């Protein structure tokens, strides 16, 4: 049974009005359906690529182009960007299917279980196909979870402006104009693709991306117009600490952001919960080793008494300390003592007991207190010996 082709409706006509205004250069008409947008765009564009997952739609769209005597249009059967040539477009158009449906029966209407999945997938890839000054025109509806659409736009470092709304029957229709944020342009200039928002720290935002076929993380301030002091300082600390194999490996640094190797691993609590006594001891010793190095360098990392999001352990048991945005030089660095506090904290008591790892709090506290006073190698050595003996 063939899939029906979407006949132009209010949403199509509303979108077409905007397509006529923005069409130029290379245009991609995603989900061309009857071909209404692609054919409309071709009148002012240099070249149009009309795409659909439904081969029947491509037959219909081709017929429409022939009737209108349009030559500068090419038709490609593709699931979103799968078969699209890797060129940059000046305009990308998508009037997506947006009704929620579990079965995905008709790709012209149903956008996935929640309605916005096809649009979300489209937005996740579209920036890599867009010229820096290019535009994306999409339709969406009050029947689609719009806050989700806005979130996906933001997570892809894009900016959205609603340029038209209309109330039709039981829904509101929106035409949104989307473009790259300045930050995204900057990242693309530096050959980073597949950019995604990852999370944010207190001062910086973290993104992931692909650079020279490797996954990287990028830390930046949202507004890159000025280089914030915290980013400059963190770059300096990481450059120094990387020499001692501490911190994530810097890949490159710019004035206002830096990229480092993306570390795949478990945060410390999860690691401790699932690991054997032997592995836990090994990791505690490795972390102490890095704490001692930081103390020797007179760098206070802070937060090591509660380093839940600051220590990652990979599947080869390599420890990576994350996040040096609060680090400071100090005559009395507290890394060893803070981490000592952590291992005797109530948080860990039960976990350690389950693994038969019995740590005497007083002993650790005594060593930590003495060490803090004199920064003595011998006392640090005793602390390590005690942990090894457990
Ligand atoms: C709402 S219709 C829009 C048709 C036309 N562009 C318009 O404005 O009238 C959505 C179109 O997207 C196509 N489509 C749905 N999922 C797709 C996917 N994953 N890849 C490419 N096209 C898809 C459907 O086949 C359908 O032709």
Concise synopsis of the structure shown:
The protein is an alpha/beta fold.
Strand order of the largest sheet: 3-2-1-4-7-9-8
Radius of gyration computed on alpha carbons = 28 Å
Work out the strand percent: 25-35%
The beta-strand count equals: 19
Q: Which architecture of the largest domain does the CATH hierarchy give at level 2?
A: 3-Layer(aba) Sandwich
User: From the helix content, strand content and strand pairing, which structural class follows?
Assistant: alpha/beta
- Kindly report the CATH topology of the largest domain: Rossmann fold
Poorly predicted ranges (pLDDT <50, ≥5 residues)? none
How is the biggest beta sheet arranged? Answer: 7 strands, mixed
Distance between the termini: 70 Å
Overall geometry = elongated
Q: How many separate helices?
A: 13
Task: State the CATH class of the largest domain.
Answer: Alpha Beta
List the ligand species.
S-adenosylmethionine
The number of domains: 3
Task: Tell me what the structure shows.
This protein is of the alpha/beta class and 390 residues long. The protein folds into three domains: 10-180, 3-Layer(aba) Sandwich (Rossmann fold); 185-261, Phosphorylase Kinase, domain 1; 266-389, Orthogonal Bundle (Transferase(Phosphotransferase), domain 1), CATH 1.10.510. The chain has helices at 10-22, 36-42, 55-67, 117-126, 146-155, 182-189, 229-242, 268-274, 277-296, 335-343, 346-354, 361-374, 377-389; strands at 26-30, 47-52, 73-77, 89-94, 99-100, 110-112, 130-141, 158-168, 171-180, 193-200, 205-211, 214-220, 250-253, 257-261, 266-267, 299-300, 311-313, 319-321, 328-329. The strands form five sheets. It has a seven-stranded mixed beta sheet, with helices on both faces. A five-stranded antiparallel beta sheet has the order 10-11-12-14-13, with helices on both faces. S-adenosylmethionine (SAM) binds at residues 6, 8, 12, 15, 30-34, 36-37, 51-54, 57, 79-80, 95-97, 107-108, 118.
């Amino acid at each position: 049974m063939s899939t029906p082709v979407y006949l132009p409706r209010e949403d199509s006509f509303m979108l077409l009005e905007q397509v006529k205004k923005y069409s130029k250069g290379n245009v991609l008409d995603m989900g061309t359906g009857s071909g209404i947008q692609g054919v409309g765009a071709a009148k002012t564009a240099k070249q149009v690529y009309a795409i659909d997952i439904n081969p029947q739609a491509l037959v219909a769209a081709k017929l429409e182009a022939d009737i209108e005597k349009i030559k500068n249009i090419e038709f490609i059967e593709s699931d979103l960007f799968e078969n699209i040539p890797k060129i940059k477009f000046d305009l990308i158009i998508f009037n997506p299917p947006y009704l929620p449906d579990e079965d995905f029966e008709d790709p012209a209407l149903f956008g996935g279980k929640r309605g916005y999945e096809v649009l979300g997938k489209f937005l996740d890839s579209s920036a890599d196909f867009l010229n820096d000054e290019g535009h994306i025109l999409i339709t969406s509806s009050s029947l689609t979870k719009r806050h989700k659409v806005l979130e996906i736009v933001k997570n892809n470092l894009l900016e959205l402006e609603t340029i038209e709304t209309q109330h039709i029957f039981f829904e509101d229709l929106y035409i949104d104009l989307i473009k790259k944020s300045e930050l995204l342009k900057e990242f693309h200039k530096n050959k980073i693709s597949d950019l995604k928002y990852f999370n944010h720290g207190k001062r910086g935002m973290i993104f992931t991306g692909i650079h020279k076929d490797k996954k990287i993380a990028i830390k930046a301030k949202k507004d890159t117009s000025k280089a914030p002091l915290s980013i400059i300082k963190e770059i300096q600390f990481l450059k120094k600490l990387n020499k001692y194999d501490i911190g994530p490996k810097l890949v490159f640094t710019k004035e206002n952001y830096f990229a480092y190797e993306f570390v795949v691993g478990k945060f410390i609590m999860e690691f401790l919960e699932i690991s054997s006594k032997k592995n836990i001891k090994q990791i505690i010793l490795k972390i102490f080793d890095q704490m001692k190095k930081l103390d020797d360098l007179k760098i206070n990392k802070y937060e090591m008494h509660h380093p839940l999001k600051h220590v990652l352990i990979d599947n080869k048991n390599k420890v990576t300390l994350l996040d040096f945005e609060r680090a400071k030089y100090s005559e009395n660095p507290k890394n060893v003592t803070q981490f000592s506090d952590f291992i005797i904290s109530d948080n860990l008591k039960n976990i350690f007991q389950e693994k038969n790892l019995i740590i005497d709090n007083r002993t650790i506290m005594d060593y930590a207190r003495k060490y803090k006073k004199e920064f003595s190698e011998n006392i640090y050595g005793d602390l390590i010996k005690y942990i090894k003996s457990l």
